[in-house]
Design brief:
6-stranded mixed sheet; Alpha-Beta Plaits; ABC transporter ATP-binding protein; Rossmann fold; 4-stranded antiparallel sheet; alpha/beta; single chain
Length: 295
Amino acid sequence: MITARSLVKHYGDFPALDDVTFDLDDARILGVIGHNGAGKTTLLKIMAGLIAPTAGSLVVDGIDVTRRPLDLKRNLGYLPEESRLYETMTTDAYLAFFGEIYGLSKPVIRERRDVLLDSLALEADGKKIGELSKGMKRKVAIARSLMHDPDLLIYDEPTSGLDPMTSRSVLDYVKSLRERGKTVIFSAHNLFQVEEACDLVLILRRGKVVANGTMPELRETFGSLTYQVFFRIPDPAAFATSVGYSASDGRYLAEARSVEELNRTTAALAADGATIERIESHYPTLEEMLLKIGR
């Protein structure tokens, strides 16, 4: 269980975080999003015990992170946006090195290393880390964060700069960690990934929490279900209707915000000579929410 209360962080006179409060149950994935400069990385660093807040409290599984950051790190896996790896080492040696740092025995190191290499589709082929692709390096960094089998994982942009296939592989792996009882907090600019993977989403704007909840809760906050009616018209120049619609690249679209309005819209369009092609339900996306919030 994570409990954050009124977290504040100032860099000089600049308020990077301002009264950030939220709760997160175990075995959940929390996505932290916002425009550049919203305070995402600052929040993740505070949660990882790397920097101290100016004010407020953060308790993780009974550990007061502001007072006992070292106790937290024993059960924490942290992945910064830019991972600095020991590029002259092989993947095997690198993971074994960090296993030793965490005090693991050689049999446990071999077992966990083999499981992680297999799970992340990493081949220990003797290459040095510096010879690996960016995607493979990212997977090595994720494996490193898991060598000591922590319950809390904090990942800053885990799929940043990866190709679509590697990005999908990493995201699927992050989702699988929840099924193993891990709690994951990650930030991402890829909002589709956040929508897909996260149980809860925290939206920051200029260091403040502007929204926090599940995707259904956020959709209700920023606009509920709408219906999109796509239709064709035989002669656009002569088409006249009382229904408001938009046109783009030969496509015609009308929107309705209730079933009753949808019925009126489709009936009016049909009476005016339009042919209904399809009707789609539409919830506001995280991208649309951020646009509404503004910078």
